[in-house]
Amino acid sequence: MNSQTQPPAHAPHWRWSMLAVVSLLLLAGCATSGDFGEIKPSLVRDNIHDWVGLDAIAGKQTTPSHYELTDDERQMRDLAYPLIEPPYDRQRWYSLLGENGFIGSAHRALPDRTAYASQLLSSRYRSASARYAQLIDDINNDTERVGPFFSNSWRVLDTDKKRQQALAFVGTSDMERINVRRRVRENTLIVGMVSASLNRRAASYRFALERLVIMTPSPMAVDAERALNMMMARIAETQRGLPNRGMRTASSSL
């Protein structure tokens, strides 16, 4: 198991106000032992990942929509989070802070493909085989997440197309139209953010595998290569299935 406990990336000042409270909850016995090493469902509130949309539009020429999220939109944000969270931030004492969006946005935005390898190689493992096993597990976990996220995203983007078409037939105020377009843009930017994250992650896994092959050659490298190729094929397959109309929306601004 990865025993290194690096502190999280710096967070906006207001978010640290929650640190003491959440830390106490974690010290009281709240472990991150759900599926894929994520937070237990009992510790996760229904809207825990709503902030993902705010991360997606950060720095863009738009603002959040005032409309409530649909079930599919909320699920898309839930499915997006594990694909933008660094794999090595799972099962850490601060994982619940990341789930709630209090920390990590600056870290997630870094495109450094060497970060994963640095964590993997600097952490203590029982053997070189254990490092290969960790790499393979992380790749396989991401591969399993790709399909559900993009399947959900297709529904969201398809609904957004119909929502925009409805504007031509439904009497609406200027503000209602603005809120619709802001939500459509936010949804599209989330898909773009996850797509970019997946491409970075694949590159990071490739870099880590190459370092392992050089430092500690092992027959397990073949298994890791096979897992990585499967992940990359899954990403390409699911991204081809996305409606182009949704991705084009990302170039507009409000």
DSSP strand content: under 5%
Classify the secondary structure makeup into a structural class.
Answer: mainly alpha
Number of structural domains: 1
The DSSP helix count reads 10
Distance between the termini: 46 Å
Unreliable runs = 1-18, 20-33, 39-44, 245-254
Tell me the Rg in angstroms.
19 Å
Write up this protein.
- With 254 residues, the protein is mostly helical.
- The protein has a single domain (48-92, 110-251), classed as Up-down Bundle (Glutathione S-transferase Yfyf (Class Pi), Chain A, domain 2), CATH 1.20.1050.
- It is built from ten helices and no strands.
- It has helices spanning 19-27, 52-57, 71-84, 95-99, 105-109, 115-122, 128-166, 174-215, 220-240, 244-248.
- Helix 3 runs antiparallel to helix 7, helix 7 (128-166) packs antiparallel against helix 8 and helix 8 (174-215) packs antiparallel against helix 9.
- The radius of gyration is 19 Å and the shape is elongated.
- It starts with 18 loop residues before the first helix and ends in a 6-residue tail after the last helix.
- Residues 1-18, 20-33, 39-44 and 245-254 have low confidence and may be disordered.
